Amino acid sequence: MKYGLIKVNVADVRAEPKFRSERLTQAIFNEKVEILNEKGDWSYIKLADGYLSWIQSNRILKINKDKLNAFLSKINYVVSDGIINLYEQANFNSCIFTKLVFNTKLVIDKLAKDFAKVICPDGKRGWIEKTKILKCSAQQRANSSNVKELIKVAKGFIGVPYLWGGKTPFGFDCSGFAQTLFDFFLVKIPRDTKDQMKCGTLVSRENLRQGDLIFFPGHVGIYLGNGEIIHANLGRGCVSIDNLEKSNLDYIAELDKNFLEARCYF
User: Fold this and answer.
1) Is 195 inside any structural domain?
2) pLDDT band per the 50, 70, 90 thresholds, residue 30
3) Which of 89, 103, 194, 215 is within CB 3.0–4.6 Å of 94 for a Cys-Cys bond?
């Protein structure tokens, strides 16, 4: 078995080994992959969530299993802001290496006044603003007591463009938005809507709670309470809040009519 880590900030993962193929999902910097097959400039991979699909091989840093596990064991921080700069030096006027996205896991070697030193798997070093990251040990699993924090983070992505197959603040699709947000709050759910519907505990519409996922044909949103859902939706072209109650100004009749089921995951 061959292994690797994603070495770019965001990598598209496609249905077939060609650039014009459908984007199924995305992988982000430092994400582990298993390389199952190679074809020309493409690799057939298995992501950490079990997803199987194709990615351009130059997006992967190949690494042996021992070095992979040693690097992953050092991950100690996670990006807690939307999109942040990775600088060459601990200086806001320094050249930018790249931009890192929400929920990217990092190895931080040193904290300075305003910056944190990032160790990349290829040995390169960079610096990021330390107020935009969170210690992994400080992450809390979503529960009924802290669900308002999950909602607060979700609302921070309002206006992020809709992107089929997207799961970052550069662009989300509905299930990618739910999966990424839940993963930040240590709740593991599948990537696609059809698989998310097979997990969790079924909840009646009358007993919805904040943080439940609500499903529609080919679509999913996160329940906020008072009839509101937040979702990445093609209709509005971005992450937005809509309502399932007729008395509300943001009422969307189509969503109300096509409500399938709801599920709780924490």
Assistant:
1) yes
2) very high
3) 89
